[in-house]
Design a protein that fits this description.
21 helices, five-stranded antiparallel β-sheet, 617 residues, alpha+beta
């Protein structure tokens, strides 16, 4: 009844098991035989698939369990919210089995999302005084009002039928036909729903309502929903008509308004402003009288504002509302929600404009702060992924190298060769220690990677990587040709660069041809402040016609090698791009592969004479 299924992945036998409920949730036949790749691809392409891929990758690499709520696309094409839980079983520090549960939470999740949407509508109504929010289901002819709507219309919720006809029954008879026509035009997509009309409350009182709405459509363009707002503009309309005769009364409401208000002349100069506006932008009333609204408007917002104002002057619209920026007297930016309405004299000629200005700076800054926090969180997640890769891949390479050297050492009886291997083992130990130091640097990175780039000697980094895997290089009788200046520096995170080079070297050795000894060539080219590093081998190569688009993808392997995981190139590309560079590939089957990486050129550091001797040695 809880719609919970079970799943299991045997990483040793490379088999996948789904329980009956799991298959039902995916809407596949009972005899369906799943695999890990197809299981991942059921998740909706984009962030959902990326999140589950990352969770599985972390589970395999570190044993970290996961519990996520994501969208899958079933075999029948339905989008479904599911809860996926899983963890890894480790043997000798290596994942051998993944297992967990799979639950259909679509109904609950969609109700939660609907509730969130309702909260957003409520927030809009509470942030703007006396504004009602409504939601019209076009297909079901179901109209939902919030509490402010019932207050505006003077109706009780218990007496409201929830149909569009219930709204029409409150509209003034002289405005009803026009209101129905404008609603039909909006649903047909011929005109935005932005109108004014009169309503008759149950008490008989007539009120003027301003209404705007957005129409949502299905994939075929058919209207399915309208979401809009109503607010009472009765007082504003009456003030516009009686402005010349009731200036004192208007000024009282004007000055005491909690939002900024101003009368603006046709030339753009302020006629009068209220205290709220002066407080928002820092100028006194006298100072504003010598300025125009153009003087205070941010240049990037002025064109849009003037365009709407022209439509207002030409009589194409009666009012408009935009978000824009003003310059505060002290120089900082003030974000406002501006509503401008045209005022006509008794003869119908345009007289001036009424501007209502709501300071929304705190809301905008809060949104921006949240975006920055999200950006930092994403960057930190990338750093953690790279850290996990360096731990699992780089340290494993060091361990393999040292194990091989110890094996050679135990069998070597020649004294001179014994000392040589012992020296290589000492070098490998120093390399391991340096890698651990680099891991500490990665842990300390808390913001963007680009802020943590250092000047790194590329020749030394390549030589260091070669020493760390010397045993593997010698075992395959590998020839390495390094055509890199020993005084070439690039901008990089040392730990990332070590990881990239180590992955390129080990891949070249891992996928070398059995028909010839491995040859690795490394060349560089400098152009326009960039360093292009070309890393080439004569190994098995890759069929780019078949695999070119997925060569840097997660879990993508192109040769049947027992150690192939499909993670290395994915992480390498991630690390290169995190440092502001890029990586491409050229390859032909059985001829070899070339990876082309670009980095920013760094300033050269001074190398003392004794250091040069050590480097060359």
């Amino acid at each position: 009844m809880a719609k919970i299924g079970f799943w299991e992945v045997d990483l040793v036998k490379n088999t996948v098991f789904w329980s009956e409920i799991t298959k039902q949730i995916h809407e596949v036949p009972e005899d369906y035989v799943p695999n890990l790749k197809e299981g991942i691809n059921f998740y909706k392409e984009g962030k959902d698939r990326e999140l589950i891929s990352q969770a599985v990758s972390n589970g395999i690499a570190t044993g970290e369990p996961w519990d996520v709520e994501l969208i899958i696309v079933t075999a029948k094409g339905r989008e479904l919210w599911v809860r996926a839980q899983g963890e890894a079983e480790l043997a000798n520090g290596k994942a051998v089995r993944l297992f967990g549960t799979f639950q259909d939470i679509d109904d609950k999740k969609r109700k939660d999302l609907a509730y969130s949407q309702a909260m957003e509508r409520l927030a809009l109504a509470t942030n703007v005084a006396k504004i009602g929010v409504w939601d019209y289901d076009v297909v079901q002819n179901n109209l939902i009002w919030d509490d402010n709507m019932f207050k505006l219309y003077g109706l009780n919720r218990s007496n409201f039928s929830g149909e569009v006809e219930a709204w029409e029954s409150s509209v003034h008879p002289e405005d009803k036909k026009r209101g129905q026509k404008e609603l039909a035009l909006a649903l047909a997509g011929e005109k935005e729903f932005n109108t004014e009309f009169r309503i008759i409350q149950p008490t008989g009182e007539i009120r003027r309502i301003k209404a705007t709405a957005t129409v949502k459509r299905d994939q075929n363009g058919h209207p399915i929903q309208m979401i809009g707002t109503n607010w009472d503009i009765t007082e504003l309309k009456e003030t516009q008509l009686q402005l010349e005769r009731t200036i004192e009364s208007f000024n009282g409401a004007f000055e005491n308004s909690s939002i900024g208000m101003a009368l603006v002349g046709l030339n753009g100069k302020w006629i009068t402003v209220n205290n709220s506006l002066c407080k928002s932008i820092g100028y006194t009333s006298k100072e504003l009288m010598g300025l125009t609204f153009q003087d205070l408007t941010h240049p990037d917002d002025l064109k849009k504002d003037l365009g709407l104002l022209k439509q207002l002057v030409d009589g194409e619209i009666e009012t408009y509302q935009i978000e824009k920026r003003y310059f505060h007297k002290k120089g900082h930016i003030v974000y406002v929600l501006l509503t401008v309405t045209a005022v006509h004299d008794i003869d119908g000629n345009l007289s001036h404009f009424i501007s209502q200005i709501v300071d929304i700076t705190s809301r905008v800054e809060a949104q921006r702060k949240q975006q920055e926090l999200n950006k930092i969180a994403l960057e930190q997640n990338k750093n953690l992924m790279n850290f996990a890769h360096i731990v699992s891949h780089n340290l494993r390479s060091h361990a393999t190298n040292m194990t091989m050297l110890l094996g050679f050492l135990s069998k070597e009886k020649d004294g001179e060769e014994f000392q040589k291997i012992l020296s290589m083992l000492q070098s490998a130990s120093l390399g391991l220690n340096e890698t651990v130091d680099h891991l500490n640097e990665v842990v300390q990175i808390k913001t963007t990677t680009l802020d943590n780039l250092k000047s790194v000697n590329l020749w030394e980094a390549i030589a260091h990587t070669k020493n760390n895997i010397r045993a593997q290089i010698d075992e395959l009788d590998t020839t390495i040709k390094v055509n890199v200046p020993n005084d070439l520096f690039i901008k990089a995170v040392p730990a990332y660069l070590d990881s990239i080079l180590l992955n390129l070297f080990t891949n070249a050795l891992k996928y070398s041809s059995t028909e010839r000894a491995p040859i690795i060539e490394i060349d560089t080219k400098i152009q326009n402040g960039k360093v292009e590093l070309r890393f080439s081998d004569n190994g098995l190569g890759i069929d780019l016609d078949r695999h070119g688009e997925k060569i840097f993808g997660m879990f993508k392997t192109f040769h049947r090698h027992k150690d192939a995981k499909g993670i290395g190139l994915f992480i390498t590309k991630n690390q290169v791009e995190a440092m502001g560079g890029k990586i491409t590939v050229e390859s032909e089957p059985n001829l070899g592969t070339s990876f082309i990486l670009t980095f920013d050129l760094a300033k050269k550091k001074m190398i003392h004479e004794e250091d040069q001797v050590c480097v060359r040695n």
